[in-house]
Structures are given as C-alpha cells and as structure tokens.
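Weekly structure sync, notes
Attendees: PL, DS, HV (note-taker this week)

Item 1: Nucleotidyltransferase
DS walked through the input record. Source organism listed as Flavobacterium laiguense. Sequence as pasted into the shared doc:
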Amino acid sequence: MARSIATIKQELTANFMGNAVLQNSYGFADGAVFESEFSKVSIESILFDIFAFGVFLLEVIFDYHKKEIDTAIYEQKSGTPRWYRNMSLAFQYGFDLLDDSDKFENTGFTADQIEASKIIKYCSVKESIESNRLTIKVAGESGDDLIPLDVTQITAFKDYLAEIKYAGVKINVVNNPADKLQLTMAIYRDVLVIDENGNSILNGGKPVEKAIRDYMKNLPFDGELVINDLIAKLRAIDGVNNAHIINATSSAYDSATADYLGFVPINVKTIPVAGYFEIVNFDTVSYVV
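Item 1 (cont.): predicted structure, written out as tokens:
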C-alpha cells in the first residue's frame, strides 16, 4: 500500500539529516530535526516535497498495477463463478467455437459484428453449496430496457455452456422476463413545487416516477431492492416532504407454467428471481399534503 507523502518525506529528510557529509556542509548537529533547521519554503524542503510526491505517485501506480494483476489472475481461474460469468458475457450468438477451445472463431469479422453478437449484456452466477449447482441468470438489452433472450438465443447459449463447462458441474440457467413490481405509496408533497398529479410545477415531468425508474435502473443486476434505500431516494427529491410506501409487492415469472406467480409482499428487501424488475404502473402512487 502506498505510503503517505508526509511519511515518504520524513524518511527522506531523516536520511538527509543523518548524513555526516551534509552535517558538516550545512553545520547542523547529528540528531537535529529537518524541520528545525529548514523552513517549509526553503529550497531543500521544496525539493523533498517534489521527491516525496514523485515517490508517492510511483507507489500508487504500483498498487494499481498489482490490483489489476490480482484481478486478472482471479478472473482467469477456470471454473470459478467469476469465470462462468465472464464466459457467459463473452458468448457470441451465431458464431462457432474454435476446435477444442472455448474461444470463438472471429476471423474475417469486424469488431462491430463481433460486439453485436454478444447478446448477453447482464449476468450473475451464484453457487449453491447444498445442491452443488451453479445458477446463471442472464438478460439481454433493448434500448434502456433489460429483456430475456428469445428461444433460439437461449438454446444456443445453453449449448455453448455445455461445451465449455467443467465435467460434473450442474448449471441452472435463469432467463426470465422481469419480475413485476407494484408500489402503493403516499407522497407528501410541497404544493409550491409538485402539483396534485405529481408533476413538477417548474420543470414539468413527474420527478417521483423518474426517481423510481432511476433507482431501478441503477440497481446491480441480480441485486437487492431495499425498501429503505428507495424511500431515501424519494425523500431527496425537490418538493417531496416525505414518502410512505404503504405496500410493496413483487411477482416472479414461473417458467414451468409460462405465467407469473401471485404477488408477494416485500417487507424489507428482495432479490428478483429474473435478476431485474419491471414496474407495473404508477396508478397506486398518490400525492398528498
């Protein structure tokens, strides 16, 4: 870990003050302290500041480089959940694998064609110790929206996993439409800033709805929705005096029945089965004073 500039300067000046030749040249006694002999604006002090800053930058660069190397080594370890995630994101729809390899044959294709073939934009991999199984959640993207892969795409992806996975590893692929999220809320508004329909009087638009969408968009894929975090974001909106989530429920897609399950309450937090949410509507958001 990089030392502080002050620590580096102290070590440099300690060596400087302990040098017998310099003691004789400058006339300071053995054991004297640098700060007692030289002012902060002296040329010697300024030079040591420069040297210390240079050493500090070098140590920061070394730290960053070590972190990059450690990360690269970790991610290249075959068979880890991180490896499966990286391999899932590297899947190229419509491309063949090289013989006896987990790499794709990209000869003759442009960088744009290769990038366009990488249809999996979001992925999480979790290991279940009890069932000795990896659960891989994936999603594609359409504009700003997360979407499931279609039937042919997910079939190709599963075949790809079968080719690259380690023998004996059981994999469960989750490629569901978004979990549905229903929020019943009372927004206590400043009547000078937000009207009774939730519109910003000054700027137009519905800031509460935008804040909810932004919060959902910024959630990590397969991350937790925390009710208190959402409330804090709503309370930070100009014109919102308070926010009360009366009821929060979610409904996950059941691939076995090809239909959504019933809505269940979210008491504190939840992780979407699909890895992401879709807000049903904002009809249950009321604006009160």
